[in-house]
């Protein structure tokens, strides 16, 4: 029996030569392989292995015989071999092409599905309608570690200078839990501590991972509210129910925010805009999600409160969350200005107006904080704005100039907001609570001055770059140098 071993990379011609050499035949001898049944076997790298049970004897013909019948059979065998080899190659190559096309098709389908989901995420699929699983915490209380807050942290937590970027989600949850205990709300309203933990976990899980409107923003707003309660000594002036409503509204005020504002919701005619008739669609949604969470027995921190008191808490919380709609800013601040000089803490309407202004202050209070804490929030907000404006351009919707990445810069975004929104509102609150002047109003003025100086640097830099070569404008260069020197001087003085 002949044994021929060949590599799978051999060509059919090389294999035939190996068979001839092993059989002691000349290289141009025509060779045919037949199996035990007499069927011809194609000589190529895809031929199956020989085994003891299935021996393939070789049938060799020396040089082409001159007889007509032998020549025809030889030619037929050779053509058959060649055809079998070609068919195999065509089949293998065809499979590769089919697989490549299938991969391309799958990738395209995946892209279309991702784009479709992204488009539907705001417009037709608000999570509180279709995803009830989020309304119960994904983690149970045992996996919520108990953090011991140091005295230094407890003191820092009461101040507007608190650095909200240093804390992980579980640590922020522990800080929120501490606030409810520290203000006496757990005791006064018989809140089950385990239910409080579960509720906070559920709150965390129902904030989306947006650049700005996320759980850290929720914590930031609530911590500022907590600091204002201490700084203004509100517990001496308003009821514990008012304190509970203030803190709870701050926690819930942006629940399930999709990252696209009311203007987008209304212009795109989303599910939320249709549901709430274009009236504060996001704020109404935040309220709905908040009280759906409270409707879960394991998360209802108000379970021990009588129905009448709960109605008051519910109405108060809804009123405050709806007040965070910036479309109502002028209306709310003007109402407060009219009563601030004759404010009466025993007047329920006055107190309600104050609470609305307080949650507004806390919601947009980032510039009150130190620069190193405040500035990253501007980057986060601009990132979210740019996501929206890019989508609006893609969908052919109106784009607000302050959201357009091609038109806005950090100084231009902040100067007008600080000058015409933040400072006037905080100065009005200062009339009632003079103690916030140093801790809140003065930092806002410093922030305004810093951004105005940055704007001057931007303008001077732009002017220098725009000056044609050979026509250098020394006045612009000197202005730029003077501003930079002034900023360095201010920084050294602060140190």
Automatic annotation (TrEMBL):
Record's catalysed reaction(s) = 3',5'-cyclic GMP + H2O = GMP + H(+)
Q: Name one GO biological process term.
A: signal transduction
Q: Where does Zn(2+) 1 bind?
A: 217, 253-254, 363
PROSITE patterns given for it?
A: PDEASE_I_1 (PS00126), PDEASE_I_2 (PS51845)
- Binding residues for AMP: 213-217, 254, 363, 414
GO MF terms here are:
3',5'-cyclic-GMP phosphodiesterase activity; metal ion binding
First and last residue of the signal peptide: none
What keywords are annotated for this sequence in UniProt? cGMP, Hydrolase, Metal-binding
Q: What does this protein do?
A: Specifically hydrolyzes the second messenger cGMP, which is a key regulator of many important physiological processes. Highly specific: compared to other members of the cyclic nucleotide phosphodiesterase family, has the highest affinity and selectivity for cGMP. Specifically regulates natriuretic-peptide-dependent cGMP signaling in heart, acting as a regulator of cardiac hypertrophy in myocytes and muscle. Does not regulate nitric oxide-dependent cGMP in heart.
This protein's name: Phosphodiesterase
Species this protein is from: Scleropages formosus
Ranked from the top, the taxonomy reads:
Eukaryota, Metazoa, Chordata, Craniata, Vertebrata
